[in-house]
Amino acid sequence: MDVAAERFRPTRPGSREAMERLQAEIAAEATFEDAAGVTPADVHSGDALVAGVDQAFLDDRAVSAVVVLRGGEVIARESAVTPLSMPYVPGLLAFREGEPIVAALEALDVDPDLLVLDGSGRIHYREAGLAAHVGVCFDVPAVGVAKSLLCGRPRRATDALEAGERVPIEADDSMSAPEETVVGHAYQSRQYPDSTRINPLYVSPGHRLAAGTATDLVAACGGEYKLPRPTRLADRYADELKTGR
DNA sequence: GCGACAG
DNA sequence: ATCTTGTCGC
């Protein structure tokens, strides 16, 4: 697939200020409402191609793995390795992991209808998390799936949720969005029958999706584990590339 | 100064 | 994210 807007390519700008300015542009360019056509039904039927993306690290390099699914079946895989240009900084993840991700996606011969990224989308200080950055860069519907919450506040307690339940995540005063704007959801993809609790996933739209639809799509991706199938497979592939099978 | 902080 | 043994629970 091809980058739609070269100016949004996540390469490391000179300063933190420059990176934050670019994120403000990303957020302004991102659409946080349904504007693409990809529906949960399309994901189920196989009418939509879903790409799961995840990274693994080796010393000073990052390896990004992409797995494309059509109705739960793997139809393509790609990967890319690039040197790390900066350390992990909360709020600037896209500038650390974006280069290998974009490179791996560019190597794809097919064009996914939905990108599922490991990290936040709109749940971000400037509403420009990894999923928004990559989604806007390719101008493709994207959703972010994080294992922990970067910012924002759950509308109610998120412990003891049943499988399938979701709780809105509202913007707090650390974010650019008006307070209480629903920027994503805590989504309980899996849960044990009793005692032991599994933490929920934090799903947020990256581009061309409303918060509710983003979560519906992740649910439609399925999977036997906590992470949605596309992400789980990309995670395994990345680890496979890192070690050597 | 204190607390919070995707991967 | 990554480094890792043991350990709790279905």
Q: SSE layout and pairings?
A:
Layout: H1 16-29, H2 40-45, E1 49-58, E2 61-70, E3 73-83, H3 93-106, E4 114-118, H4 130-138, E5 142-146, E6 153-154, E7 166-170, E8 182-187, E9 201-207, H5 211-221, H6 229-243
Parallel strand pairs: 1-4, 4-5
Antiparallel strand pairs: 1-2, 2-3, 5-9, 6-7, 7-8, 8-9
Helix pairs in contact: 1-4, 3-4
The chain binds two DNA strands through strand 1 and helix 3.
Task: Write a structural description.
It catalyses: Endonucleolytic cleavage at apurinic or apyrimidinic sites to products with a 5'-phosphate. The record marks 88 as: Interaction with target DNA. Its cofactor is Mg(2+). The longest helix is centred in the C-terminal third of the chain and has 15 residues, at 229-243. The chain has a 9-stranded mixed beta sheet, sandwiched between helices. Helix 4 (130-138) links the parallel strand 4 (114-118) and strand 5. The protein is globular. The protein is built from 6 helices and 9 strands; from the N terminus they run ααβββαβαβββββαα. The chain has a single domain (6-243), classed as archaeoglobus fulgidus dsm 4304 fold, CATH 3.30.2170. With 245 residues, the chain is of the alpha+beta class. The structure holds 2 DNA strands.
